[in-house]
Amino acid sequence: MERFAENLMYASRWLLAPVYIGLSLGLLALAIKFFQEVFHLLPHVLTIAENDLVLVLLSLIDMTLVGGLLVMVMLSGYENFVSKLDIDEGKEKLSWLGKMDSGSLKNKVAASIVAISSIHLLRVFMDARNIADNKLMWYVIIHLTFVLSAFVMGYLDNLSRKDAKKSL
Q1: What percent of the chain lies above the pLDDT cut of 90?
Q2: Where are the bilayer-spanning segments (predicted)?
């Protein structure tokens, strides 16, 4: 009975595979939205104000960072929790594949969230004259919360890695 339960739990990891495929559909939706923004920008590129151009470009950078985050979570999450990716010898392989454990993935996700938040905060500051002061304050507080959380997670991960090395 115990062996059956363990095998069932181990096999249930495959329930995550459709979730990772769903993330790839989210990546497709993000790519469509990205190019929609580019196509809206192009006819107006000569007449758009510099500040507005920078805001649109920051939005594109934001989407790119989210896309990279999706790829990182999809591939390393699948490889860590479902199955090793079997990539043919002749095909290009991302250098970080197979090297990112769940702890480092968590730290990369936290760092990406901080970067995305930073871009969003910069976008907000570029348009600060149209945003109430109390909203600006909350944007900064939320961003600082992300920064602090990422720092604490990284610090704790570093401590646990040092403890693991000492116990060996």
Answers
A1: 47
A2: 12-35, 55-75, 109-126, 138-156
